[in-house]
Design brief:
2 copies of one chain form a homodimer. In chain A, the strands form 4 sheets. A 7-stranded parallel sheet of chain A has the order 10-9-11-8-7-12-13. In chain A, strands 5-4-3-6 form a 4-stranded parallel sheet, sandwiched between helices. Chain A has a 3-stranded antiparallel sheet with strand order 1-2-16, with no helix packed on it. The first copy, chain A, has helices at 3-21, 26-42, 44-60, 65-71, 75-90, 130-140, 154-170, 186-192, 208-217, 240-252, 268-284, 293-298, 327-337, 350-359, 376-379; strands at 98-103, 109-116, 119-124, 144-148, 178-180, 201-205, 230-234, 261-267, 288-291, 303-304, 318-324, 342-346, 364-369, 386-388, 396-398, 404-415. The first copy, chain A, has 15 helices and 16 strands. The first copy, chain A, is globular, with a radius of gyration of 24 Å. Chain A starts with a helix and ends with a strand. The interface between A and B is large, with 69 and 69 residues. Strand 13 of chain A pairs parallel with strand 16 (404-415) of chain B, so a sheet runs across the interface.
């Protein structure tokens, strides 16, 4: 079958499944999620056997150690997928919730009721576990999902999807609820992006190149997650011990993720006391500092930051540091160089805390907390499907509720319009 | 200046204005809206003089009477624009509202706070009053707006925007908050749709052709409003007097709009009693009936419906009528032919009312009420900017809140992630 026909058939199956999923009781969805978790654990040996094919190809292709790590379905990764599905089963079902209801002067009772989005397509790169994580979240929110994972993990992804499909169908989930595209080249993505008749939302997960490619070629709405150039601003009034703990946590606890700290801004009045101590702590953790002249005057080991450093997402043990004259200057720097992802101020000043929260445009703005908390689980949404840095539909971490929309419902008693 | 450069400059001005608009106090926005309303009334004579240029061109081009009506800035239309701006001023400001706030086990206090979307572009057809209506709503929600109206109304739109701009700036609204694109060919729309650096959302208002053109060519998220093929289902248990009043209101009160009734479904058990009486009432109002064979057996004056009638948006005094065997058949018909717009059941049966509300996928689902109520004003949202029949971000009538998004705010006390 030609690629386009194959994808159209998948789209039609997904659309049909989505109509049935929308009406499925919570108990049926939760039972299916638990059966899927059990199924993954029971299939561990066969999943790992299949995974070895992807790993062998990866070694042969000379992929990096980090890439191969991400591909590997270790015991721990399989256990985490199963635990993730069980967590999603335990979340409240968003579908059917009436988020607000009010009465009109003519007696009409009007409400907004949560319903699934319909069909969601995930386009992602190497991690095969996304197959289970995204599949479970979409199912719980009553959506069908089409998964198009990376070439490197394709055998593993297909094997995981087969386990989910088998377990789900035995528990009453309709055929087509969770499907994986077998063709892994970009042509398949391009075709997928044209299927606006069948797909309601595209969520790309991966590098900036993938996300731009999807955005530029899609006829279907795309939730975008671009890079995270996250800042911590240490205000003049900051408690320096607290500031140091937050900076270290934000930079070092897991430097390779999007909510890690990339640029530290320090108020001039705190610079003499704060920069030498935080530089020592950072050096102890192996962090390279690239500083402005004011920073280098206080931290001799720092190299000189270039213009590019203020826009860099290092995802590594590197930190850009700049001394600023005021809160206004910090806000202007973030406005110019931030990526609408995560921004944090460390301060003891009430007015500055409020101004920072009000005026910074980012998906998550914090006072006296590590940027690492911008995460669906950490903020209390349960599992997340991604962090949106665009504003339409969702802005920030997307939990299960963000995979739904609301329709208007109206209870009348024969009203007609004058 | 080349078209692209001109639009990029407009985009940059709008982006800059949007940063300032986001921080503007409610009182400043409301004062500006009231000044704009006064300004429009004060400029009535000059607006009507300019409008005559558009009207003369329309007559020369042989436009229909209805088109010319829509173009005309009568005293009534100008008064309605001013009243609309005053109504928007009286609405609560959505910006800054914290829609929910909760505490995490580690003490972090997390909230979701409403913020403007940023820059909105409206692409619309002939009515020049959209310039004021959309401009006012976008301003109140803290957004900058770029308006690209139809060629036929361009002089009127530019004149209205000039009045708004002058009144707004005197009241402290930044330059670039409300701008009108002077170039009215499709090339300008195409260029606008590429400006994803500057524009956050595109809202097209007009015929299906325009909306498809925008959707297929946009890199920016689009809120779509396709046609309204709205149904009323008269159930076996319906109060027939109530059913007749609802059908007549939905079909006849204003047939040329998207929430007007297009197909009537009647339960077989109600058909003998209901069809002859409603047919008489419809005939009295000049409505042509196109019926299924079962309908024609009961309404001799009805012509035969073809397959195309079940998908038609007549926007005229024509009604398709079909007899169905059950609620299930009515649901299946709506599933196959509905347009996700507005669907209503007339019933006295509790279980059927609940099933209809649950199972029908449409932006607004009603029990015992006229489809004509699917409108932002009627449902209590205040003025509306359109009705979305796609599900992302908004589904149904879009009020002022739908022109905002929420960002996460976090109040910490030094928390770091384990």
């Amino acid at each position: 079958m030609a690629l386009r026909d194959e994808l159209v058939a998948m789209g039609a199956r997904a659309r049909e499944a989505s109509r049935r999923l929308a009406r499925l009781p919570s108990a049926a969805k939760d039972a299916a999620l638990l059966a899927m978790a059990d199924g993954l654990e029971a299939a561990r040996t066969e999943l790992q056997e299949t995974n070895r094919r992807d790993l062998a190809a990866a070694v042969e292709a000379g992929l990096s150690r980090a890439m191969i790590d991400r591909l590997t379905l270790s015991d721990g990764v399989i256990a985490a997928m199963a635990a993730g599905l069980r967590e999603v089963a335990a979340l409240p079902d968003p579908v059917g919730e009436v988020v607000r209801m009010w009465k009109r002067p003519n007696g009409l009772v009007v409400g907004r009721k949560r319903v699934p989005l319909g069909v969601i397509a995930m386009v992602y790169e190497s991690r095969p576990n996304v197959t289970a994580d995204a599949g479970g979240l979409c199912l719980k929110a009553g959506n069908a999902v089409i998964l198009r994972g990376g070439r490197e993990a394709i055998h593993s992804s297909l094997a995981i999807a087969a386990v989910l499909d088998r377990a789900g169908r035995e528990a009453g989930i309709p055929e087509g609820a969770i499907q994986v595209v077998e063709t892994t080249d970009r042509a398949a993505v391009l075709e997928l992006l044209q299927l606006d008749r069948y797909i309601d939302l595209i969520i790309p997960r991966g590098g900036e190149g993938l996300i731009r490619f999807v955005t530029e070629n899609s006829r279907i709405p795309v939730i975008q997650h671009f890079k995270g150039v996250c800042h911590v601003f240490v205000d003049a009034s900051a408690d320096l011990e607290r500031a140091e703990a937050i900076v270290m946590n934000a930079k070092v606890q897991r430097p390779g993720v999007c909510n890690a700290l990339e640029t530290l801004l320090v108020h001039r009045d705190a610079a003499d006391a704060f920069l030498p101590r935080v530089a020592a702590a950072l050096a102890g953790a192996g962090v390279e500092i690239r500083g402005c002249p004011e920073t280098r005057a206080r931290v001799p080991a720092a190299t000189a930051a270039t213009d590019a450093d203020w826009d860099a997402e290092y995802l590594d043990l590197v930190l850009a540091v700049r001394v600023v004259d005021s809160l206004d200057d910090a806000l202007a720097h973030i406005d110019a160089h931030g990526s609408l992802h995560t921004e944090s101020i460390v301060t003891a000043d009430y007015a500055n805390a409020q101004r920072f929260l009000d005026e910074v445009d980012a998906s998550c703005v914090m006072v006296n907390a590590s940027t690492r908390f911008n995460d669906g689980q950490q903020l209390g949404l349960g599992a997340e499907i991604g962090i949106a840095t665009t504003k339409l539909h969702s802005y920030g971490p997307m939990g299960i509720e963000d995979l739904t929309t609301t329709k208007f419902i109206v209870y009348g008693q024969g009203q007609i319009r004058e």
